[in-house]
Amino acid sequence: MKNLRIAIQKSGRLSEKCLSLLNRCGLQFDNRKRTLISRAKNHPVELMLVRDDDIPHYVRDGVCDIGIVGLNELEEKIGCSKSPDNPVKVIRSLGFGSCRLSLAWPKSVPFEGLESFSGKRIATSYPNILERYLESKSIAAEAVEISGSVEVTPSIGVADAICDLVSTGATLDSNGLKEVITILESEAVLVRSNQTLESEQEDFLTRLLQRIDGTLLAQN
Ligand code: PRT
Ligand code: ZN
């Protein structure tokens, strides 16, 4: 059978947890070699180590068969994952990498609810999710796309507020910002494309999902 190709983040917050989950499911890789693609020692599986931003498109386009990525990246790159005609499907929520995408506002400026964002510039690395949210709430504000250190933008005058990932809230706090509205609750999810797999690959994926379910159950 053709190898089942799995995309995970090469290096970052999700990498080790993804590898450890796959290891606990019985898949062994040579972790010393951080190559783009590495074949599992004992199963017809290839691991593809890439930037998390690329995983949704790789799965959509069939470059990979399945992938593990934050729901935030999936929603940003592919759109609403709950829609039935979405080309990439969430098949498991994995219970790690939890965070939320929230709007944050300067502590020094009075906040009077969502309307306070009207006419403001909001810095974010998630312009698609933010724009969809603002539109759904009929708020006219400008999403300013920034690739990193979004939390510093209000203090340097680039934006009035931000929309960013939050876990403990410490980053917002130390930059004089407060979380005011949560747009999306996120965690790492296992995704697959709508494309048909070979029947042996499909069977292998079914067995892998059973192992993943067993692993998730054992840790709860
Ligand atoms: O290089 P590559 O593009 O692959 O990685 P990356 O830098 O884009 O992503 P990475 O490794 O930072 O995060 C990968 C995924 O982890 C994200 O897409 C989320 O799904 C998830 N995740 C969970 C988080 C956080 N928690 C998180 N706290 N991603 C980022 N943060 C950042 C946030 O952007 C902010 O700067 O942490 C800061 C806030 O943390 P607190 O604890 O101070 O609130
Ligand atoms: Zn990224």
TrEMBL record:
Q: Where in the cell is it found?
A: Cytoplasm
Record entry for activity regulation: Feedback inhibited by histidine.
The UniProt GO MF terms for this protein read:
ATP binding; ATP phosphoribosyltransferase activity; magnesium ion binding
Residue ranges annotated for the ATP phosphoribosyltransferase catalytic domain, each copy included:
51-213
**Is Cytoplasm a UniProt keyword of this protein?**
yes
Q: What is its EC number?
A: 2.4.2.17
- Reaction(s) this enzyme catalyzes, per UniProt: 1-(5-phospho-beta-D-ribosyl)-ATP + diphosphate = 5-phospho-alpha-D-ribose 1-diphosphate + ATP
Q: Which domain of life is it from?
A: Bacteria
GO terms in the biological process aspect are:
L-histidine biosynthetic process
First-listed, main subcellular location of the protein, grouped into a coarse class: cytoplasm
Enzyme class of the recorded protein, top EC level: transferase
Which pathway does the database say it acts in?
A: Amino-acid biosynthesis; L-histidine biosynthesis; L-histidine from 5-phospho-alpha-D-ribose 1-diphosphate: step 1/9
| Family the entry assigns | Belongs to the ATP phosphoribosyltransferase family. Long subfamily.
Q: What is the recorded function of this protein according to its Swiss-Prot or TrEMBL entry?
A: Catalyzes the condensation of ATP and 5-phosphoribose 1-diphosphate to form N'-(5'-phosphoribosyl)-ATP (PR-ATP). Has a crucial role in the pathway because the rate of histidine biosynthesis seems to be controlled primarily by regulation of HisG enzymatic activity.
Protein name as it appears in the record = ATP phosphoribosyltransferase
Name its species: Pseudobacteriovorax antillogorgiicola
State the gene name recorded for this protein: hisG
Q: Which residues of the full protein are shown?
A: 1 to 220 of 294
